[in-house]
Amino acid sequence: MSDRKRSADDRAAQAIAQRSAVFVRLFGWLFERTFKSCFHAARIAHPKPPSAAPAQQIVIYTNHPSWWDGVTYLLIARYLYPRHRVFTPIDAGMLDRYGFAARIGAFGVRQNSRMGAADFIAGSKAVLGLGDGLLIIAAQGRFADPRERPLSCAAGIAHLPDHVPDVTFIPLAIEYPLWFEKQPELLLQFGDGIDGNELAALSVTKRREKLEAALGRAMDRLAALSIARDAKAFDTWIEGTMGVNPLYDAWRRLRAMVRGIRFNAEHGARE
Asked: What are the φ and ψ backbone dihedral angles of 109, each rounded to 5 degrees?
């Protein structure tokens, strides 16, 4: 084993050890409160997200539309995969700035460098080797509008099948549109899983193309649903804030009470 390889493995082991279940619970609660104060609702498009046994090796890879993605990842871990230890690679510079992130499952990767590539592979192997580890990756590697095409994923994810067998890659599209309320929506659309062993039989270029195509299809489906603004096409899994202004909403509530009707703070609701 080379010194460079050993160093990457050591850094990966250290990153895994830094994650704290106490911090995950604490920041999960804090992030959920923050989300509820800023968003109207979190919604998952049909079909429901794929379930995963704790021993199943899963990589969820997403587009990267917003700063809110980190909050979204922790909410996904908290609500959808509570039996897993969820980790995500982030830019090492951001980890330096937000040191607490290492305590909730982030590990640093120096972008556009050989050391960063080694750390990504070593960290991913360490996570998926835990038995109950689940990896969520912002596959684009940079912030990008969800309508941007052609879709381009960073190259690192396409190399994972060479290092970790029996992995399922699940594409996840994310959007944060404004619909009828003052607060935005969080919309998710899971795509069909891809067998990592089948990917391993392809060239790296073909793997990347297949991963990008699957994520692109999920993003296109979500875009159509987002444009349609039909909440019935989604399951609501977190309800956030609704209403226009506390004083105005208090007046609306009083008026509804006088009329003997049920008050609904949503802007799109009929009174």
From this structure: -135, 125
- Please check the confidence at residue 213 and state whether its pLDDT lies above 50: yes
Amino acid at 262: R
> Quick check: 32 pLDDT over 90?
yes
For residues 264 and 242, give the distance between their C-alpha atoms in angstroms, rounded to a whole number: 9
The whole-angstrom separation of Cα 199 and Cα 203 is 8
* One-letter identity of residue 84: H
pTM, whole model, 2 decimals? 0.86
Look at residues 35, 41, 71, 72 and name the one whose alpha carbon lies nearest to residue 239. 41
| Rounded Cα distance, 132 and 109, in Å | 22
- pLDDT of 105 strictly over 90: yes
For residues 149 and 53, the model is more confident at 149
Domain residue spans in the chain? 3-240, 243-271
What is the arithmetic mean of pLDDT over 91-117? 89
In one letter, which amino acid is 98? Answer: Y
DSSP H/E element including 14: helix 3-18
For range 195-213, the mean pLDDT: 96
Query: Omega before 165 cis (within 30°)?
Result: no
- CATH class of domain segment(s) 3-240: alpha beta
Task: Give the pairing of strands 167-175 and 194-195.
Answer: antiparallel
Distances (CA, A) of 151 to 67, 89, 211: 19, 20, 10
| Angle CA 137–143–149, to nearest 5 | 95
Residue 266 tokens read as 């949503």
